[in-house]
Amino acid sequence: MMQGVQIDLISSEKLEKLTSMEKIHLILDHVRQGTIIILEKGLSPDEQSTLIEMTMREILPDGFNGIEIETYPSREQSPGFLQKLLGKATPESRLTVIGPANQLRLIRKEKDILSAWVSTR
Amino acid sequence: MNILVQTKKRISRFLSAFFRKKRARIGIYGPPNAGKTTLANRIAKDWTGEDVGLVSEIPHETRRAARKADISIMGSNGSNITIDIVDTPGVTTKIDYRDFLEYGMDKETAVTRAREATEGVAEAMHWLREDIDGVIYMLDATEDPFMQVNIMMIGIIESRKLPVIIVANKIDLPDAMPQRIRSAFPQHPVVPVSCTEGKNIEDLYEKMVEYFG
Q1: How many CB pairs under 8 A join A and B?
Q2: How far apart are CA B51 and CA B47, in angstroms?
Q3: ipTM of this model?
Q4: Sequence ranges of the domains in chain A
Q5: What distance in Å separates the CA atoms of residue B203 and residue A12, rounded to the nearest whole number?
Q6: pLDDT tens-digit series, residues B95-145
Q7: What is the pLDDT of residues A41-72, one digit of tens each?
Q8: In this structure, how many other beta carbons lie within 10 angstroms of the beta carbon of residue B60?
């Protein structure tokens, strides 16, 4: 049988259809089973906060020990008409890699390159 | 006469309770072993004479948020603030009990510590969403500030529109590079300090009066 690591790339269209809790459950359900998740569009700050909290609640001795998450630094979106009017610019969430902490290690992170190392369990 | 005085006191109490400005709760956040409890203890000791919590070299010594209420800090120009300081467990996305075995703990103690640490991080995130009015984000100036957890936490704090001061701790160590923290978070004030030696701590108090007042 072929040994390896499953990598799921999840499109922004799929993510936009999910509620915040659905996104977090989707991520944790997959990552707990050893899958590396690549989100085309990252999580909002509130979702990231909930993800940290829920990850902590899922950690078990000799089992799941948390996540490694990496993303590019967010950049300001060019404001639309309403945002210009209100003087607000929202940071754009960007491609994000999430995996089990015991399998995914970041090697190098630069402005435009994320380099990670993945091991089998 | 007595009735008049008592009534006056009651009205005064009612009005002061009604119009009293809410005391700001300032959370000390950051990754494990950045020196959060050392800073909380120094602030509390300097202004109230008491400690907040225990300090240790083993990560996750603080596993439950601890609040020290009614700390009045005075700036050099005479203005002052009264705040509650909340010392929080170090935020991380992973905790493995095996990391604690390296410090000589037996498995049972390490597993218990890891479980308490996970609860502590979850609690810290909950405080940030519900009960915190301002943040001191504590970083070890000898470590890489671009760690994802720092980027995420600063993003979360910004999204909640909380005032934040970044503290670059451990500047007494030879490897400290507080300028790296300044370049990582140019949008926020960065105060380099040594919490163990008390170096530059007065600068932090001035910034706290300015930002949290």
Answers
A1: 74
A2: 10
A3: 0.83
A4: 7-118
A5: 45
A6: 999 999 999 999 999 999 999 999 999 999 999 988 999 999 999 999 999
A7: 999 999 999 999 999 999 999 999 999 998 87
A8: 21
- Interface contact A69-B111, CB threshold 8 A: no
The shortest C-alpha distance from A52 to chain B (Å) reads 6
Instruction: Say whether residue A9 is in contact with chain B using an 8 A CB cutoff.
Output: no
Give the alpha-carbon dihedral of A116, A22, B111, B28, to 10 degrees.
80
Does residue B198 come out as left (phi exceeding 0), alpha (psi in the -120 to 50 range) or beta? left
Domain A7-118 matching CATH 3.40.50: the answer reads no
Contact at CB, B151 and A45, closer than 8 angstroms: no
CB pair distance less than 8 Å for A68 and B111: no
What is residue B23's DSSP assignment? P
Look at B121 and A46 and tell me if their CB atoms are within 8 Å.
no
- State pTM to two decimals: 0.85
All domains of chain B, ordered by start, with CATH? 22-91+118-212 (3.40.50.300)
Q: How far is A57 from chain B (nearest CA, A)?
A: 7
Interface contact B94-A66, CB threshold 8 A: yes
